[in-house]
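Recap quiz, item 2
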Amino acid sequence: MKIKVKLYTILEKYAKGKVLENDTIILHKDTTLQGLSRCLNIPDNIGIVFMVNASVHDKNYRLHEGDEVKVFSFIGGG
Amino acid sequence: MNNFRGGYCGKQLRVSLDSKKIVKENIDASILRKYLGGAGYAVKVLYDEIPKGIDPLSSGNKLMFATSPLTANHIPGGGSIMLCFKSPLTNAWGESRCGGNFGPDLKKAGYDFLIIEGKSKEPVYLVINDDSIEFRSAIGLMGKTVSEKSKIIREELSEPKISVMCIGPAGEKLVKIATVMFEHRAAGRCGAGAVMGSKNLLGIAVKGSHKTLIAQPEKLTEVTKTCLKILRENDFATNLKKHGTTGDMAANDAAGDWPTKNWHSNSWGKAEQLYNQFFKKYLVKNHGCYTGCPIACGRISEVKEGRFKTPVHEGSEYESLSAFTAFVFNENIEAAIYATHLCNEFGIDTISAGAVIAFAMECYENGILKKEGVGGIDLSWGNPEALPELVRKISLREGIGDMLAEGVKIASERLGRGSEKYAIHGKGLEAPAHDPRSGKVLGVAYGTANRGMCHIHPLEGMAYDSGKMDWGLIKYGVPDPNTVDRWDEKGKGKIVKILQDALILPDILNTCKFFMYCGIYIDHLAEFLSAVTGWNIDGQELLKVGERVINLQRLFNVREGFRRDDDLLPERMKQKPAFGFYENEDRCIIKDYEGMLDEYYQARGWNTETGIPTKEKLLDLELEE
């Protein structure tokens, strides 16, 4: 299935080679957010917040065709 | 000669403004070994010297400018100065850090600490140039903005590069949220500017030609190289440089760590859009707050045209932009940038200013403040026009600004009529832009911070709970954050105890806190400290110093009457958000704050009923014989 994914700040580098130019990624059906994170090789020890279609979801959420995912982490400071 | 092998000048400068007496005092090395510097040594001095119960704006208060052995441009993160005093906002321990070159230049002039006491009859500014200390009339500085004051002082002295810290018009008017500024960097929190203003001291200029000895220069070179390599390879450092602290706005909004509409919610869904506007349209470049910073997370921005036109200036950072957008429900980023700039020029704290305006807007919504009583300003939520206007009124104590200049606690006590529940503060200090409902470590940290509700004591609970950062402290007893659920309350009190002991160290050593996000941990600080002083100090000893300092600050507050009942969280801060991403999240509340406090006091060795450190704990920390 195709989903849209956008990575922010310290996570941006994990898009390279995985996420296409139009922010699209192809995943197996029923992939969870944790599965997406692993597919992108984001280390497990980084604190992450997922948003899917403008709602917050935890890592066990199962993705659907056409979902728009935002993956945030924290720089710190402030 | 002094007894120090390196790191310290071994002298403190005591300036009595009443008598214009200046004394250069030697410092006892054994005391410094126990308290090191910064907020550590300062609390020892101020606990011993400030009498109980004095009015913070009376001549009996003292204002300390404190450096540390690591205050130097060549030490990564070494460009800060700590200002310590009794706070007029809280009547408790007050401290505030400011980036910039003032600290390194005070050391170059030959002084580790500057103690200001008494009150001058006439407005003055102080000029420190090595051994030469001079008072100058500040009549011509009165009413001038921060930039104007700095410019005039430099011109009068024919010293275009001399470091200047000064207050703005707000400090002169004893606005309790007033700052002391270095350029556009602020010693912002707790009202240091009002204390300086109460002494009729409008500015301090400093330069020097001394070089502080380094006990082990080769070791220092080695540690510095190691740390610079860590910083070069660190993603957080790269992103702090690119995005600054503002880069976390969208993430914090998503995480429920973005207090919105005077804490009605902890998210808004607008941060990404607001940050993108700031980054793409108004950010000019990044900037280091002190010469030589290898990260340079500061922002330089500009609004080129329009009613909120703002010249190229330093700002805005995460807290400031959040205070003038989310706090007040404002979607106009230009107004937020302009209001921040005005705060820096008038010399008021952006966090407290945003909070006090949010408070006023809620009072307006509920009919406690009316249009005719606020000078005709429309204080509806999110009105961008109200922001610069209220910043100016607060700074100059005009109209409604006179009451708001007292901060939300006192303003609500004066207004009454239920406005107290809209005053979101801890011990009198307005809450910053992080929300403990979504990460409970922050709740205990907010409630127990000695200076009041504060986002960096310790270094952000949310960075632990949600960011899963451990700052190298797992070996010192902090649980791996990846094993800790941000929603849980149990265990958080114990965690806060260790985090506080460790993460107060940048305030004691005057090192930039953000370097700790980037891999420079307390073991590195211990190595730096050992190299410059020649003392053999490790991370464990640093933690002990941190604990000692927190306890002595606590004793300062206990002496002023603070007890467990003052370690409060506002009710709204414990309740489920009224709207936003987490309005239906049942875990987004604080259920048992008192239970977390019990756990914290037990971990601290404090009496759980009173919150006072026990005799055994004080003996253990060598705070009592």
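The interface with chain A takes residues 235-236, 239-240, 243-248, 250-252, 254-256, 269, 272, 297, 317-319, 322, 433-434, 455, 459-460, 462-463, 466-469, 481-482, 513-514, 517-518, 581-582, 585 of chain B (CB under 8 Å).
The longest helix of chain B spans residues 539-559.
End of item.
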